Amino acid sequence: MPRSGKRKHDDDDDDDDDDDNLLDEDDRFGEPMFSQLPPEASQSVKPETESHRKNLDNLNIEAQEKHLVSISRLILFRGLEKEPIDRLKVTKDAGIAGKDNIGSAAFQEASRRLRNVFGFELNKIPKYMENQKGMPPRFKDRYYLQNDIGDTQQGHHSRAIHSVHQSSCIEKGFILLVNGLIFCKGESKSNSTRKILERDLYRYLHRVDDAIPEEPPVHGSTRFKARSQYCRGTQGEGLTPNVDTLLEQGVNWDYFIKEKATEDNCSSQNLDEGDILYSIGPRSAIEIGRRQIIVFCASILGEAPDPSMLREIEEDIEDGEEEIEDTYMEGPEDS
């Protein structure tokens, strides 16, 4: 993934036309992209327990391979569909019963295979998000399959993958835009999160593209019922995606967190019945990161990134890294 949007130009007048064309092509990608800056520091796979490793090693080769192939395939197929990977659920679905007492070792071994064969990493929610008050418990044992292959400064590998299908580019652009609106227009909370009302989010999206409805779908309407029927490759008008379905799919992919607005989590707003809040999800944190979102917003406004916001992120990251080190020194739980 590219780490910088700036490219040093070669002023050598002897460069041939092909080199000049290449520079011109790369320069078009000098503006902020989906994952151009380092994202949040994610947590790696939970360490295996000694007892689970011993039990797995005691199985014969055929039984070991059956379990490991099954869980590796499940993780790969679900991960490629952007499904969040729940460690306990995927272990159970792979046919590994709790009484087998091999789950943590099998999951760890599957993670190694995916890394060594495909260059994929299984990463967990960032520590700073895990510690946030009110973070739904369902996120604390979820993993996300990520492409960890090194990339050039201009992101040639990433562009080669995601530019194959136009829908993939549109999805990523929409996800970055929504995260930018959440971060820049959302209400800041005491636990370092920012949240935006769904009706406000639609209003801002409509200002960006008037083909997007100005209001969210009414509960119980045909439009509301259809929002869960996302089909990749379908679009609204022109290049405008179906925002209703893509927003809901973004929630399913964990790019966004969706919750009911209450007096407790949205006390400064006059709430209507059925109001919904959106905030940045774990997958956005580990694939995009708040630094990228801040730079994206600043670039649109033609301003420099806010140093105080960047400093706040660095403090969160430092605190999270210290806690991760302490956790791994304590050793794994037997689960």
TrEMBL record:
Secretion signal span: none
Biased composition (Acidic residues): 11-28
Domain MAGE: start-end pairs: 73-290
Segments for region (Disordered): 1-52
Pfam families, A to Z: MAGE
Domain of life: Eukaryota
Gene Ontology annotations for the cellular component aspect, listed alphabetically: nucleus
Gene3D superfamilies the UniProt entry points to: MAGE homology domain, winged helix WH1 motif, MAGE homology domain, winged helix WH2 motif
The protein's name: MAGE domain-containing protein
Organism of this sequence: Fragilariopsis cylindrus CCMP1102
